[in-house]
Amino acid sequence: MKVALDTNVVLDLLLNRAPFADAATAIFHQIEAGEYPACVCATTITTLHYIAHKVVGDVAARQHIGQLLTLLELAPVDHTVIAHAIITRNGTDFRDGPLQVYSPQEWLNQPHH
Question: Which ranges constitute the DSSP H helices of 33-98?
Fold first, then answer.
């Protein structure tokens, strides 16, 4: 199953945001291990750079984004790109849509990987 990662989950990892970083880290370990493909929307990259630039500086922000793009597919912003599910901490933002929505912890507890 291909999964899309919401910006907040990626930021939890990059900025080590407690208490959410542990779940985000576990998800990225699964992606690195090749358990499932994952993507982020193109707009996530610009948001990540904007926030990371303020926290760690431009050079480090670009390095982090470069590393992310070796693991994740970059999806254009349209309604056909997300195949099955999204992992987000803002599930209410997606409750009326067609996607299966998981919190990071719900995703980690699923046996579908």
Answer: 42-56, 58-71
